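Example S7 (structure tokens).
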């Protein structure tokens, strides 16, 4: 393999993250489980992604304009190895790696690891400190557990999809696999909690994260509202019902601006910004309940006022009066936004599997979102982008972690166990 010298340099220069010294083995494909692995890698963990030699992660082929850029960002900070877990030799290597690991992240259908003979009963016997994070559509138990699960269905079954869109219309999907990302984030949270618990108990445990439950968990008070008073929250378009004023309003140049003044003090500031300070104490609008009763009236009033100004001027006026406001940006506007740039939210991702002279080498790095949240002392970072070539780090990992020599690697490669 040709190594990229810039990547080797970057690895040494990258800040040490909070999870430096934690080794993660990532199994599974697409978004939810690998997103958990990405978050762990962002915080400094050594993430080793395991792919089948003949069936690499389909995410490698996702992207726009003929560019496979989804993978480059989503597989960042991961060393990629090709290992056939369907063979005895492949399973033996995986179990040897598991002995050295702190965390295994998998996103197969429940029961898959057990069928392969590498379930948690086996893993925990080999390594009692090992944490197994299992990410699936519905969780490891229950009547739906064996169903395949995708983000779209998780959002639907959880009630999240029902809340999106406008009343009386088909509930649309946000142009993201939101349920996958939520599932990955909750799995990440569970891994952190399990690592902390291990400091007290000395033992690992299973983290069971479901896309459907992650989608349910963010729904604020919908469950108690229904349980106690029978209220079924409905989609409300561009606003939240009875939270007023808080909506999008069109400027004179045809752009949408968010104005959120649904607290009493904020409403008084907005009234002053509109040149009508008397509305701030008007009994018809002075408190939360009154404004909720007159939500349509307020939206019409604010909309007429906002339409007099360009989006830039409207935001400037509202900022002057400390009213919560902001534009509805496209990604093109996001990337030039001074706030995101001041916070260094767009960082370079360089393919570690390619070097000058290689087919497909691009000297220009790919921009992606930076590490969130920011830690003051152990910030982590982007050490390298996802490797476009499967198995880029197979030799490196097996030699470094398990001590395999060149002859052993050659025999495994000839047998098809690794690639």
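Recovered sequence:
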């Amino acid at each position: 393999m040709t190594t990229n010298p810039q990547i080797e340099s970057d690895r040494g220069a990258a800040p040490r993250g909070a999870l430096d010294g934690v080794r993660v083995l990532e199994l599974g494909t697409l978004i939810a489980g690998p997103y958990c692995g990405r978050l762990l890698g962002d915080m400094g963990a050594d993430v080793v992604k395991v792919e089948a030699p003949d069936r690499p992660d389909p995410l490698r082929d996702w992207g726009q304009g003929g560019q496979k850029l989804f993978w480059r960002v989503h597989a960042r900070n991961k060393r990629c190895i090709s290992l056939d877990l369907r063979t005895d030799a492949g399973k033996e290597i995986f179990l040897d790696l598991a002995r050295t690991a702190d965390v295994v992240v998998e996103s197969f259908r429940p029961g898959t690891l057990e069928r392969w003979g590498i379930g948690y009963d086996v893993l925990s016997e080999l390594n009692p400190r090992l944490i197994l994070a299992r990410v699936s559509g519905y969780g490891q138990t229950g009547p739906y557990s064996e169903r395949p699960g995708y983000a779209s269905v998780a959002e639907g079954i959880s009630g999240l999809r029902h809340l999106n869109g406008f009343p009386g219309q088909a509930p649309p999907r946000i142009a993201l696999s939101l349920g996958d990302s939520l599932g990955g984030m909750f799995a990440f949270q569970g891994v952190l909690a399990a690592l902390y618990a291990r400091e007290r108990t000395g033992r690992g445990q299973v983290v069971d994260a479901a896309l459907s439950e992650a989608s349910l968990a963010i729904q604020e008070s919908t469950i108690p509202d229904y349980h106690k008073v029978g209220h079924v929250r409905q989609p409300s378009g561009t606003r939240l019902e009875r939270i007023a004023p808080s909506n999008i309003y069109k400027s004179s140049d045809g752009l949408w601006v968010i104005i959120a003044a649904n607290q009493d003090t904020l409403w008084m500031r907005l009234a002053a910004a509109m040149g009508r300070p008397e509305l701030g104490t008007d009994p018809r609008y002075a408190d939360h309940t009154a404004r909720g009763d007159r939500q349509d009236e307020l939206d019409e009033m604010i909309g007429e006022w906002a339409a007099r100004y360009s989006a830039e001027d409207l935001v400037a006026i509202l900022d002057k009066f400390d009213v919560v406001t902001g534009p509805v940006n496209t990604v093109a506007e996001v990337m030039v936004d001074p706030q995101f740039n001041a916070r260094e939210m767009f960082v370079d991702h360089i393919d570690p599997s390619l070097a000058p002279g290689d087919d497909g080498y691009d000297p220009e790095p790919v921009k992606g979102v930076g590490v969130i949240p920011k830690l003051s002392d152990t910030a982590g970072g982007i050490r390298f982008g996802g490797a476009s070539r499967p198995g880029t780090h197979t030799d490196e990992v097996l030699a470094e972690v398990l001590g395999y020599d060149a002859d052993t690697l050659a025999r495994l490669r000839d047998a098809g166990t690794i690639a």
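Notes on this example. The mean pLDDT is 93.
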